[in-house]
Design goal:
The protein is of the alpha/beta class. It is about 40% helix and about 15% strand. Strands 3-2-1-4-6-5-7 form a seven-stranded mixed sheet, sandwiched between helices. It is globular and about 45 Å long.
Length: about 220
Amino acid sequence: MNTTTVQLSIVIPVKDEAESVADLAAEVSRAMADSGWSWECLWVNDGSQDGTGEVLRGVLRQAPNHRLIDLDRNYGQSAALAVGFARARGGILGTLDGDGQNDPADLPLLARQLEDEGVDMVNGVRAKRRDTWVRRASSRLANGFRNWLTGERVTDVGCAIRVVRRECVLRLPVFKGMHRFLPTLVRLQGYRITGRPVRHRPRTRGRTKYGINNRLWVGIADTL
């Protein structure tokens, strides 16, 4: 695809986030409007059944920088990200979760750091997490286990906001749970990674899809 017209592609996988996507899309547009970057935002609708697709189609009618990819069923966050990466036009790819806990205003700062420091990925590090203690503890244990087993020292593997050069992700192995390992997988290819503190907000709409069973134990099993 032609990658000359867009500098930064933002990929946001969503599943049943009808209550939050319109506000998040408006935040993305505001954050990028004066950033100096040419950009697009790709929403990958991963088999939502709550009207998320319809809300996003309404967004697209008013916001030409936003694009929608509708998957025919739910394939999971890793597959949705991989589809977004493949369809993105930018030389730099950014990622966000669709639940509104990431602040899109951090994306231009991450992208600028990537360019200024000449690294290949800048991963967000949640300075003050707005999650339950169960989610925080599960993520801390899983992150520590991944780093111990792989020999890497990625501070916050599970943080969903990051920017990465396009070439770093197009040949990654795609498997269920890949999204939990993106910084580790990029680093293991020899690319240069750094981190940056980012804002983290409490979830105010929708329902979390993660718990101890599908975060801690699945993350450890996927590492093995």
